[in-house]
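Researcher: Good morning. I'm working through a list of sequences from a screen, and I'd like to move beyond sequence-only analysis. For each chain I'm collecting a predicted structure so we can compare shapes side by side. This is the next one on the list. No need for commentary yet; just the structure.
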Amino acid sequence: MRIYSNFDAYQYGRHIGVFGKVKYNGEEYDLDNHEQALRFAIELSLNDVVKIYKYEDSHNASNNSYSLYFKMVSEEYLFLNTTNDGKENRMQIGTLLLNVINHGIVEKIEVLEAEEF
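Model: Good morning. Structure tokens for this chain:
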């Protein structure tokens, strides 16, 4: 199964640009809303699915999502922490969303008019 990288998320954002809505632990999240996408990532962290890290060399404030990256901690999904070419996969928010949606970690409840990526 495909492992998405930050470059994939960048391309997805440029060409498709929609994530839609997901359901996780009984809550709905609109992942096209940046604040809700961050809340969703925090919920994944609270449930020991991912861990949130700060890029040490980031010039952004700590509360800026672009200064953060995510790594899977759930045993079942540790393979997502390495890209297909064997490099460390420090997932930015968009990459995290692509991976959790496409690997069935969450239930996608609304797909907007976007082609399969």
